[in-house]
Structure formats: C-alpha cells, structure tokens
Amino acid sequence: MIEQAPDHLNPILERIEGFYHDEVKPRELALGSRLRNSLEYIDHNGKLHPEIQAARREIMRASGLAKLFSLHLPVNIGGGGLSRTEMFFIEEKVYSYGIDLAPGILSWTDGATPRLIFVKEELRGQYVDPLVKGEKTACHAVTEPEAGSNLFDMKTNAVKKGKKWVLNGHKAYITNPFEADIVNVLVKTEPDMGKRSFSYFQFESKDYLNKGFRHGRLNRTMFDDGLTGELHFENLELPEEALIGEVGQGFEIALTSINWTRTRRGGMCSAWSKLLIDKSLDRLKSRVVGGKPLGRNQGLQWMISDMYLDWFSARSSSLSCLREIEKFGPWWDTKRPAEQIRLFAMMKIINDEAFYRVADKALQLHGAAGIMKDTVVNKLFQIARNLRIPGGTDESQRNTIAETLGLNSNMS
Questions:
Q1: CATH no. for 254-404
Q2: Which uninterrupted H or E stretch holds 301?
Q3: What are the start-end ranges of the H helices in 66-118?
Q4: CATH topology for the 138-244 domain
Q5: Rounded CA gap, 18 and 22, in Å?
Q6: By C-alpha distance, which of 270, 263, 400, 267 is closest to 322?
Q7: Do 91 and 266 contact (CB within 8 A), yes or no?
Q8: Predicted TM-score (pTM) above 0.90
C-alpha cells in the first residue's frame, strides 16, 4: 500500500490545491506558449523571460501571504515549523502539478533557505522576513569555476581590515544571480583551518552593485533555465554585520542548506516520477502499433514495471531516511554521528538515480514524441540528468557513504 500523508496535513494539502487553482493555474494558462516553447521561455539574452520571472515572483508573494511559502522553516523565524517528513508530502503535492509555475509555491534556493536560521536577531527584519514572506529573492553563491563538490578548493576569500571585510573572488553556476535582491556568499576567511576555514556573508544587491560586486556572464544549462550565472567580487567592502552566524561557521551553514536540498529530492522526485509513469501508461494504452496497443508488448510492460519499482523504492527509502534523520533532532543540526550524515547522502543518490532511470525509460517509451524538446517528458528527462550534479555530485555522495562506513584515503 502507498503511504498517504498523515491526516493532520490534509488541511494544508487542501489549501495548496486551492492555491494552485486560484493563483497558479490562471498564470500558467496566460503564459501557456511562453512556458512550453523553449524559444519563448528565455529572452534575447538567454535569461528567463521577464513575463515568466514576474509571474514567479507574484506566486512567491501570494504563497507567502497564504503562509505556504516557508512551511519548512522554524516557527521562531516566521516559518510553518513542519518537519522534513511532513514536508515530503507537501513537496510531493506541489511538484505533482508539473514543472511550469507550481514549484514557486514553495521556497527553493532563490527563496527562504535554512541559512536564515543563522541570521542575527537584529537583522531579521532586513534579511529574514522579506524572504520568508516571498517578497524578495536571494542567491546562494557557493560554487566556483574550479570548486564544486569539494568546498576546500574554493578561492573566494574575505580579509578583515579594520571594521570591514574585503571580499575577492568569482562564483559560477549560481541560481538566480541576476535577479536576487539578497546575495549570500560563502568565502574563506581562515585558510587551512579545516571546516572552520569558511564564513558566510549577506548583502543587498542594489547597495553594492558595481561597487565591488558585479554580475558575470550567463551560464546556459542543458535545459535553458535562464536562471544560472556568475558573480564577481573585487575588493568588495562589507560591514561586520554582513556576517551570517559567526566567523568560521560558514561550512556548517552551507551544509545545512545543502542537506535541505538533498532531502527535498524525496517529494520532488517522487512527484515527477509518478507524473512520468502516468504519462507513460497513457501512452502505452492509447498508442496503437500493428493493430494493438503498445502496452501489449511484454518488453514495454517490463519497462513500466521497472519505472514503478524505482518510484516505489525511492519513495519508501526517502520516508525511512527522513524519519531516521528526525530521530536525532532538528534536521538543520549538522553535528551528527556518521550514520546520520550517511542518510543525507543516501537520499540524494537514491532519488537522483531512480528518477533518472524513470525519466530515461519514459522518454524511450514515448519514442519520437519523447525526444521533442518542449514536451514535459523531455524537460523532465533533462532535469533528471541535471539533478545528479548540483547539491554535491552523486559520486561525492558515495565518497561520503564510504567514509561514514569507516573507509577513507588515510587508511593504512
């Protein structure tokens, strides 16, 4: 039997259903061609088209007003206080509506992330409240051209000079760098101090644009999201209060947000996998070849069966991992034993790879229609392939699992 959401979540799920039909669907219908045609989805510069960007922002603000946008954050900073297990069902519901504008109902890396938990109390009105309410957007500047899953390769740094921090460096492959109202940037402040080498800073983009901070080039992704690009810091002077948390706490803050994105894979990949299974079943039942439905072919029956097995296994594993994570305490607590750290890596790998297998088979089952660029099946295939890179590559997650099992490069 497929596990259903607990009863106490039903009122929230019903609110999401109403919100989608009242706020999201009309905007999706109004932007129909632009959302589904890759030539219209982006503007002449390759960035997300302003009409779509505006619709996303409207949905984020409306979701904030409806108290849906930040259900994942603690109550003491304005969030809904839901656990990661509860959020699995919420995220599964939202992503079941597809890939157009519905994802904007919930905060992603351009919205209210767990980094806000570490913002000092006196700065919450400036940096926390607007993001929790969906009134502003942010970017999470961690990755660099030569530093991805291994943060220790990072070169962007900050040096304390009097009462100012001076930042220099270059970030790449960042989501929402051009539109972000608030920039969060991870830098090295104390090199060679291990995990204490890093600190996190925040500032309002408009206050420092072309004053030591500037946008770089657009990074075109495989699915042309129009939302990925580069940032440059050239002797950017920030005040002491720009620091998030404490000096040397940056690694912990970054890991909190990264682990959040890994656990979000559960509901998101479950919803999109189920969407692909349903579309593939419709295809197998309705497409007639040689006088019989495609679904009469045993080879194709095995493919759809494997898709269902992957979906069911990943979904069940996700819920099991999330419950184990929460037995330890709040999910944002990064000071965990090895067997707990392993769970976050497992969630990413299990969901990334199961979703990719489902998407690959779905595309194959749709034949020529599957390779058409602007179909939902094709877009989800591209997303599925992309997911195996950000948030720490699946290979780096395997390294983490091996290390937590007692294997590492220092073994004699």
A1: 1.20.140.10
A2: helix 298-328
A3: 84-95
A4: Butyryl-CoA Dehydrogenase, subunit A; domain 2 (2.40.110)
A5: 6
A6: 263
A7: yes
A8: yes
